[in-house]
Amino acid sequence: MFQKKVRELQQALAHAKSEDSAKIFNLAVECLEVAQRERRLDELLETFPKLYEVVITFDRFFQSDDNL
Questions:
Q1: Under a CB-based contact definition with an 8 Å cutoff, are residues 12 and 27 in contact?
Q2: Over the stretch 28-43, which tens digit does the pLDDT of each residue have?
Q3: In which band, very low, low, confident or very high, does the pLDDT at 47 lie, cut at 50, 70 and 90?
Q4: Partner of 31 for a Cys bridge, out of 3, 5, 37, 47, CB 3.0 to 4.6 A?
């Protein structure tokens, strides 16, 4: 499952367009969740070093009342 999610995210990033940002964000969150469940978070962050930081930043942005 972990490798599948990582491949999906890599493919989405490789072919990303601006309208794909929500899809990519959701894939990133899924990757983090699977990696955490499977205790492979270190491996994921080696593949995508800034992933955790990006997800947290996007999450804060989308939850902010000022940005709605």
A1: yes
A2: 888 888 988 999 988 9
A3: confident
A4: 5
Residue/partner pairs of 46-54 with CB below 8 Å, 24 or more apart: 47/6, 48/9, 54/28
Q: How far is the CA of 65 from the CAs of 19, 62, 68, in angstroms?
A: 22, 8, 6
Longest dimension (CA), the chain: 36
Residue 51 and residue 44 in contact, taking contact as beta carbons nearer than 8 Å:
yes
Place of tokens 């972990």: 2
Domain segments of the chain as ranges: 2-67
Is the pLDDT at 55 greater than 80, yes or no? no
Q: What is the pTM of this model?
A: 0.66
The SS3 call for residue 64 is coil
